[in-house]
Structures are given as C-alpha cells and as structure tokens.
Amino acid sequence: MSCHLDISHIDVVFPTPKGPFTAVQNVDLQIQQGEFISLIGHSGCGKSTVLNVVAGLNQAHKGGVILNGKEVNAPGPERAVVFQNHSLLPWLSAYQNVELAVKQVFGHKSKMEQKEWIEHNLNLVHMNHAMDKRPDEISGGMKQRVGIARALAMKPEVLLLDEPFGALDALTRAHLQDSLMEIHADLGTTVIMITHDVDEAVLLSDRVVMMSNGPAASIGEILSIDLPRPRNRVEMANDQRYSQYRSAILSFLYEKQRKIEPLSAKQTKPNQVAVA
Ligand SMILES: Nc1ncnc2c1ncn2[C@@H]1O[C@H](COP(=O)(O)OP(=O)(O)OP(=O)(O)O)[C@@H](O)[C@H]1O
C-alpha cells in the first residue's frame, strides 16, 4: 500500500553567520491517511522546522516530503497550517477571515455555496454565534477556533498545527482539545500537531513522535497510543495505559534527552514541556 504522507529522510540546513547549521537530520516518518501525529521534544529541537517542510515553507536539503504520490515543494491549501498566534486579519470579522480562505480555494463556487461552507466551518468550531465579531472583540480561545475554521475551510488533506493551544489557559485548552478530537473523528483529516504538553499528546494522538535534541535532531522514539476512541479526559486520567504512555514520554524527555537550561532561561521560556 502506498503511503499517504511520506516524510522521507529529510535534512534541513540553515545558513548562519557562523556557517551552515544542520537543524534536523534524517527525519523519516510515514503517516497513514487520517492519523493524528504529535511531535514533542525540547525547545529548539526542530519540531517547527519539520512541520514547515511539510507545509512547504522550508526546503529540505536532503530527502523530501511526498503527499499522495506528489512531491511537496511549496505551500498549498491541501496542507493548512494553524500557528500558536492565530494570525487573523484584525480588521476583518471571523466570517470574513474564513471567507478569504474560501475565496482562495472555492472561488469558483456560487456566493450561496461559499456562504454555507463558511458557516458550516464556523459551526464546526462552535463559533457561529460570533461570526460577525472582529479578532479584538473575541477571546484567545475563540481566535484559535476561527483559525482552525479557516484552515478546515480549505478542505485540507493534512492539518498542520504548530502549538495551536500553547497560549491558552488550561480550561480553554481542554475545550479546544475536545473540539479538535470531535472534528478529527468527523472529518478524518490527517493531523500533525506540535505540542509541549505531554497529556495533550497522549489524549489526542495515534502516535507520539519524540524528537531528540539538536543540532542535527532526529526522531528518537515513536510511541503508538493504543487507546480506544472517542477518548474522555476524565476516564483517561484513571486508565493505567494512559499513565504508562505518559511515563514513557516523560522518561524520554527528562532521562534520555535531558536538557539542562540556565535557570533564567527556564523561568522565562514560554513553551517548556508541560506536565500537569
Ligand atoms: N531560519 C533559521 N535560521 C537559522 N537557524 C534556524 C532557523 N530556523 C530555525 N533555526 C534553528 O533550528 C533549530 C530548530 O528550530 P525549531 O524552531 O524548528 O525548533 P522547535 O523544536 O520548533 O522549537 P520550539 O519548541 O522552541 O518552538 C533551532 O536551533 C533554531 O535556532
């Protein structure tokens, strides 16, 4: 069977004033259609670099990415990205922000069809009640919901999430994780999500890909999460397998890939790996 998304032996090298810097080396991962993959690893190990190659925003110096048999070498609507900081246009309403993406991909459809599709996607993320509000009139969690609606409205084959809930408080984050699990169950979109949150990785993923520290970071271990879906966070908290998965990730991060950071950096770094 051919692979849906093949991240094949990629190296990424950045030019720097001190010479070429190999951020990631020989990252190799085959992903099946509809799989939910989390990328976890210490800050600076190369998670965004890998995601950006799949998005077509970074070029690999060796290897490459193949989606459904076609090589990826530029951004495209079949690979929609959601960043940590929503990146909505501030002067447009939630509806208009989603409309921009819809016009880009489905501009050939009638006005009425486009309107229905925009509303459908805002509905999916439970934002239909606030579709006329501008970003400065809604909360951080709501902005991320609109960002996800905008990405989904492109009907992507792969959803690329770069720490989508990183800036949110714990309760809002939990609501958005639940919404994302529902959407993933409904649409079966392939997802690659970067996270620093061990619980988020276990709760949402089919596989957790743990990256070693850089430079020349690579995949250290891959953990398959064999927990039935739909998953309920309260039930999971009492599930022995859930605790074992969690321990396996913690052991990778804090024993095998232990990273000593200066205390001042630790105190100020916003995206340390989080353990509840
Ligand atoms: N354009 C660039 N030029 C030079 N070095 C870069 C560039 N982009 C990333 N890097 C370096 O590549 C390494 C990997 O960065 P990357 O942002 O992918 O890490 P990350 O795991 O996503 O980090 P974080 O969790 O902090 O977001 C880092 O050492 C970073 O400094």
From TrEMBL:
Q: Which NCBIfam families match?
A: ntrCD (TIGR01184)
Note whether Hydrolase occurs among the keywords.
no
Q: Which GO terms describe its cellular component?
A: plasma membrane
The subcellular localization recorded is: Cell membrane
Q: From what superkingdom does this record's organism come? A: Bacteria
InterPro entries from the entry?
AAA+_ATPase (IPR003593), ABC_transporter-like_ATP-bd (IPR003439), ABC_transporter-like_CS (IPR017871), ABC_transporter_ATP-bind (IPR050166), NO3_transporter_ATP-bd-like (IPR005890), P-loop_NTPase (IPR027417)
Q: Which Gene3D superfamilies match?
A: P-loop containing nucleotide triphosphate hydrolases
> In the record, what terms sit under GO molecular function?
ATP binding; ATP hydrolysis activity; nitrate transmembrane transporter activity
A Pfam family of this chain: ABC_tran
- Provide this UniProt record's keywords sorted from A to Z: ATP-binding, Cell membrane, Membrane, Nucleotide-binding, Transport
The UniProt family comment states:
Belongs to the ABC transporter superfamily.
ABC transporter domain location, by residue?
7-238
The question of whether Cell membrane is a record keyword is answered with yes
Bilayer topology reads: Peripheral membrane protein
Q: What is the protein name stated in its UniProt record?
A: ABC transporter ATP-binding protein
